[in-house]
Amino acid sequence: MSMQRIVGVMLLLFLIQGTLFYWFVPSSMVGRIVPHFTLAFVLFAGLYRGRHSALILGMAFGLLQDLAFYGRIIGIHSFTMGLVGYMTGLLLERRKSTLLMALTMIGMSTLVYDTIVYFIYRVFRLTSETYEWALSEHMVPSLFLQLLFSLAIYVPARRWFEGSFVAKSEEEET
Asked: Most exposed among 40, 61, 79, 172, judged by the fewest C-beta atoms under 10 Å?
C-alpha cells in the first residue's frame, strides 16, 4: 500500500479514536482509557517501514493530536510520538519482527510514550497526580486497549507496510 493510503487509514483511525470510540466504551471507563490508535500505526511504520517514516508520521499525527485534543501545550504529543516511533524503528531496524516482538515493542513503546507525556505535564505543573496513580488508572488500561487493537490489525498493517516498502524497492531496482 502506498504511503498516501497509509496516511488516509491513519486519518480514519484518528477520527475513530476521537469520536466513535467513546460511544462503545462504558461510561465508567471513558476518563480512564485513552486510545492511541494512530500511535499503533506509527509504531508499525517504525517496525516495518523504517525509522524515518515513523518519525515523520509520528510528528505529523502527534501535532494533529495536539491541535485537536490537547490544547494546553502544543508539541508534546508531536515530539513524543515522533521520538517513540523513531526509537522503535531504530531498535528493530535490521531484525525481522514477529508477532510477539511487535506486540512487545508496541506495549513498551506505549508505556514510554505515556510516561514521557506524564513527566512533561508534571514539569509544567499541568497534573498533580502521582506517577503510580497515573500508571494504574490511565496507562495500564490504555495499554491493554492498545495491545488488543495492535493484535487485531497486525496482519493487515504488516502487509500494508511491508508491501509498500517492497514495492518501492522493486521499482528502484528496475
From this structure: 172
